[in-house]
Amino acid sequence: MADTADTAGAVPLVARGRPRRRTALLASVGAVVVTAVAVVGALGLGGGEEEGPSAPSRAGSVVAVTRTTLTERTQVDGRLGYGTEIPLPVRATGTVTWLPEQGATVRRGGVLLRVDDRPVVLLYGRLPMYRDLGLTATTDPGDSTDTESTEAPGSGEDGARAAPTEPPAPTELKGMDVLQFETGLAALGYTGFTVDETFTARTAQAVGRWQKSLGLPETGTVGIGDVVYSTGRVRIGRPGVRLGGAAGENTLTYTGTARKVVVDASAADAVWAVRGTGVRVRLPDGKTVKGEVASVGKQASAPEGSGEGDSGQGGATVPVTVTIRDQKSVGRLESGPVTVEYVGREVKDVLVVPVAALVALAEGGHGLETEQGRFVAVRTGLFADGKVEVSGPAVREGMKVRIPE
């Protein structure tokens, strides 16, 4: 029984051991076969329809030839700010007794400065203040206003009592400057008159109420130095005088309240600078906002440090002003260097590929490698944004080309 048990216990061991040796042998043979196939494939000895060593498989990604609009953009340096400061047309005379802070914004009805402690008020308009506005008394030369007549009352030829002399009627001023002033006065809430080109008694009454709110005597007459006109809100610049100085035309400077960009564009290459042309402005923080060319200077200036006859690379420049419609997009930034990007050239409906897809041909020129490994010659056009315009009889939209590594 013991021998039987030993024999019975050995069978399973032999039966289980043989398959393991067979499996290992098959795996070794398989590895040799795979290695041989790989070597044959690498040497190009296997059968098939490949072109052989003359057109080996190349590494690199494959892209399609596309049709699009290609735009070349050029960058120039600019300066963000509020524009050039210009003098306010102050007509008041006397001593400057108060000035606003530099950078302050003054709106319609606001006080720009005080002269002899009298406020000079901002109103909106394009005409300058060139005369006093109010009612003026006139006398008809044909009327007798002599109150010292020796003729006794009632001693006329007919014995009738002479009628008392009435004061002359005031003359009503007329003009576009009156219309401009009345428009501003009504916009401030002082109404009760007809907004037109005539300064009437009702206008004078509204002026009196306005003067009372400013702490002025209610004369109903607006002096030539009481008002300064601008086309909109103003941002106060550097003062031209100190407190206690005499008021004059250079007392105070101002700019508009909208931030803009000024570019010193090359006079020889400023064809892009046309009013209304859209541009992109890159701010110091890297953010890009939309801009538009608003004006182009007509007088060119030589670069700094250049003398007469200087023919260096830096040529004459013209100032180009770019406005930014969306002021909120600029954030709180008030000044600083910026980059203005404009369209230099543009081609529409052309075939393009990435520049990296171009290869230099042995016979000269450029070509593209197709997905099948063939090379086709192409003509190149505009390069922009990492792409290049290509053309040629063998190039078509959707064709797959290879970008070699």
Sequence-ordered SSE layout with sheet pairings:
Elements: H1 2-43, E1 60-64, E2 66-81, E3 86-87, E4 96-98, E5 105-106, E6 111-115, E7 118-124, E8 136-137, E9 170-171, H2 176-187, H3 201-213, E10 227-230, E11 234-239, E12 252-255, E13 260-266, E14 278-282, E15 288-296, E16 317-323, E17 336-354, E18 359-360, E19 366-370, E20 375-384, E21 387-391, E22 400-404
Parallel strand pairs: 7-10
Antiparallel strand pairs: 1-22, 2-13, 2-17, 3-12, 4-6, 5-11, 6-7, 8-9, 11-12, 13-16, 14-15, 14-17, 15-16, 17-21, 18-19, 19-20, 19-22, 20-21
Provide a compact summary of the structure:
By secondary structure, this protein is an alpha+beta fold.
Question: How would you characterize this protein structure?
Answer:
It is a single chain. By secondary structure, this protein is an alpha+beta fold. It is 17% helix and 33% strand. It has three helices and 22 strands. A six-stranded antiparallel barrel has the order 2-13-16-15-14-17. The protein is elongated, with a radius of gyration of 45 Å.
The coarse overall form would be elongated
Structural class: alpha+beta
Mean pLDDT across residues: 81
What is the count of DSSP helices, taking H or I runs of 4+ residues? Answer: 3
Strand order of the largest sheet: 2-13-16-15-14-17
Any descriptors?
3 helices; elongated; disordered N terminus; 17% helix; four-stranded antiparallel β-sheet; six-stranded antiparallel β-barrel; alpha+beta; 405 residues
